[in-house]
């Protein structure tokens, strides 16, 4: 984390206040009173993941539901054709994935990534997590 740049100290409360207690992934309200392991509990998500070179700073985090953050994992949406081409270049260097990568079109990669990271998808996945959490009586 330190090799990526600055590190700032902050709390979920601070980020929640800044973000208006709205999830940055599903865009629904986050209940500040919920606690983990409740999937509706507040969580701080790195917009550009640490693994992808993101920093642990206020400008690179957002408030999310814990379940939405867990669903996203370390996946970062592609927003430009250049990002897609860069990702495709990495795949082309992996022998087992070369044939797959050769068939990819950057524009299609961006569209697919945007659909994968759509708020509706996160809402649906969160609802399933909440249902399972409540069914298990936690």
Task: Please give a quick description of this structure.
With 138 residues, the protein is mostly helical.
Q: What report would you give on this structure?
A:
The structure is a single chain. With about 140 residues, the protein is mainly alpha-helical. It is about 45% helix and about 5% strand. It is built from 6 helices and 2 strands. Strands 1-2 form a two-stranded antiparallel ribbon. The radius of gyration is 17 Å and the shape is globular.
- Give unreliable regions as ranges: none
Mean pLDDT: 93
Shape by Cα distribution: globular
Q: Could you give the distance between the termini?
A: 33 Å
Explain the layout of strands and helices.
Layout (H helix, E strand, L loop, with lengths): L11 H8 L22 E5 L14 E5 H7 L8 H12 L5 H5 L3 H11 L2 H17 L3
Antiparallel strand pairs: 1-2
Helix pairs in contact: 2-6, 3-5
Quickly list its features.
138 residues; 2 strands; mainly alpha; two-stranded antiparallel sheet
């Amino acid at each position: 984390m330190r090799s990526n740049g600055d590190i700032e100290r902050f709390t979920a409360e601070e980020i929640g206040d800044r973000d208006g207690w709205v999830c940055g992934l599903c865009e629904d309200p986050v209940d500040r009173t919920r606690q983990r392991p409740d999937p509706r509990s507040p969580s701080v998500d790195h917009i550009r993941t640490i693994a992808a070179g993101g920093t642990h700073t206020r400008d690179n985090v957002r408030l999310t539901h814990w379940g939405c953050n867990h669903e996203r994992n370390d996946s970062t949406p592609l927003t430009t054709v250049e990002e897609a081409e860069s990702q495709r270049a990495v795949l082309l260097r992996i022998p087992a994935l070369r044939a797959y990568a050769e068939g990819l079109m950057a524009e299609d990669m961006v569209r697919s990534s945007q659909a994968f990271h759509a708020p509706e998808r996160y809402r649906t996945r969160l609802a399933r997590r909440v249902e399972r959490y409540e069914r298990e009586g936690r």
